[in-house]
Amino acid sequence: MSKILVTGGLGFIGSHTVVELQSEGYEVVIIDDLSNSSESVLDGITAITGKTPIFEKLDLKDKAGVEAFFKKHSDVEGVIHFAASKAVGESVKEPLLYYENNISTLVYILKELKKLPSAAFIFSSSCTVYGQADELPITENAPVKLAESPYGNTKQIGEEIIRDTCKVTPSLKAIALRYFNPVGAHESVEIGELPIGVPQNLVPFITQTAIGLREELSVFGDDYPTPDGTCIRDYIHVVDLAKAHVVALKRLLEGKNKENYETFNLGTGKGSSVLEVVQAFERVSGEKLKYKIVGRREGDIISAYADTNKANNELGWKTELTLDDAMRSAWNWEKKVRGK
Ligand SMILES: NC(=O)c1ccc[n+]([C@@H]2O[C@H](COP(=O)([O-])OP(=O)(O)OC[C@H]3O[C@@H](n4cnc5c(N)ncnc54)[C@H](O)[C@@H]3O)[C@@H](O)[C@H]2O)c1
User: Fold this and answer.
1) Count of alpha carbons within 13 Å of 22, Cβ hemisphere only?
2) In CA terms, which of 58, 258, 272, 322 is 20 to 30 Å from 234?
C-alpha cells in the first residue's frame, strides 16, 4: 500500500486522518514539530488502529530537514499537509510568524514533490477564503474575498501557490479541501482536540465551561439577521472530515481527478446557530451550560454553510455523523482528558 506523509499528523484533524488512512491500509509517516500537539497522540492512534505510524519530529521550516526527509522516504506517494499555525487572533498580532510557518513549509514540500515522478498533494484550506459569501449555501465557485486576517490570507496564498505549481508540473496532482467548522472527537475517545490555553473555537469552549475550567461561555451577539440572532456555521464531525481526506487522496492516486488542481468544500450543508450548538450540547450531555450574551466580536461573519453538491457528487463523499454525535464525542473526550 502507498506510503503517505501526513504533516501535522499529531494535531486535531491530522490524528483523526492518520487513523482513517491506517484503517484503509496506507502506510503513514507523520512529520510534526509538536508546536501544538503532543507525542502521546501516537498512543491514541495505536490504541485505535493497532498500528503505530512512523513519526519524525521535524520543524518543516527547516528546509534542509525537509530535503533530508524526502531523500530518506523517497517512496512517499502522497502528502496530506495539515501542519500550520491556526490561531486567527494571534495571526493579526504576529503576521510574519504566520506567513513564515504557513507559506515557507508549503513551498519546501512542493519543491520536493516536484522532483518525484508523480505525487498527490492534499492541502488543508478553509471556508474563511469565502469571507461573508453573497449567496448561501456556499459553492466552490463563490468568489474568494479579501482575507480578514493574516491566517486567512495564508490559506488563500497557499491555494494560489499550489494552483500555479500544478499548472507547470504535470506530475503533481493536488486538491485543496476547504473545511467548514471541524468539531468532535473519535468515538473511542483515544484522540480528540487539545487546545492549548483558552480555546478560540466554540465547541472546546463549551466543553471546558461545562467541566468547570471556564466560568461561562460568551455568545458574541444575538442581534444578527438570523432566526435566533446568533451567528450560523456549518459544524462538521472531525471523523467525517478525516474520511474525506482518504477519499480525496484515492481520487488522485487512482487518477480519477478531472484537473490536476481541484477544490472541494467539506461541510454538512446545514448551518447551526451558536444557541443551537449550546442546545445540542445540553441535550446529549444532560448538563446545563452557563452562558451570557455579549456584544458582537469584530470580524465575525453572520452565516456560512457549505453547498455540498460537488463533494457529494464529484468527490463521492458525504457526511454520516450529526451535530449531536459531535457534541457527544467532544463531551466524552473532555471528561476523559480531565479524568472525570
Ligand atoms: N481546526 C479548524 O477549525 C480548521 C479549520 C479550517 C482549516 N484548518 C486547517 O487544518 C489544518 C489542521 O488543523 P488542526 O485543527 O488539526 O490544527 P492543529 O494545531 O491541531 O494541528 C496542526 C499540527 O501541525 C503541527 N505544526 C505546526 N507547524 C509546524 C511546523 N512548522 N512543522 C511541523 N509541524 C508543525 C502542530 O504541532 C500540530 O500538531 C491546519 O492547516 C489548519 O489551518 C483547521
Assistant:
1) 23
2) 258
Q: Which residues contact 60 (CB under 8 A, 6 or more apart)?
A: 7, 31, 33, 66, 83, 104, 105, 108, 109
| Burial (CB count <10 Å: 0-12, 13-18, 19+), residue 286 | exposed
- Among 130, 151, 224, 305, which one carries the catalytic annotation? 151
Nearest ligand 1 atom to alpha carbon 101: 31
What is residue 143's DSSP assignment? Answer: P
Q: What's CA 328's distance to the chain center, in Å?
A: 19
Residue 138 grid cell: 456556499
Backbone phi, psi, residue 301, to 5°: -85, 165
Helices (H), 230-293: 238-253, 274-285
Return the sign of the alpha-carbon dihedral for residues 285, 291, 295, 297. negative
Ligand 1: centre distance to CA 10 (Å): 9
130 catalytic? Reply is no
Write out the three cell numbers for 269: 450543508
Residue nearest to atom 21 of ligand 1 (CA): 11
Distance, CA of 102 to CA of 97 (rounded, Å): 8
- The pTM is what? 0.98
Beta-bridge partners for 120:
78, 173
**How far, CA to CA in Å, does 307 sit from each of 197, 234, 272, 323?**
33, 10, 14, 17
Is residue 179 within 8 Å of residue 241, measured between CB atoms? yes
What are the pLDDT digits (tens) for 277-333? 999 999 999 999 999 999 999 889 999 999 999 999 999 999 999 999 999 999 999
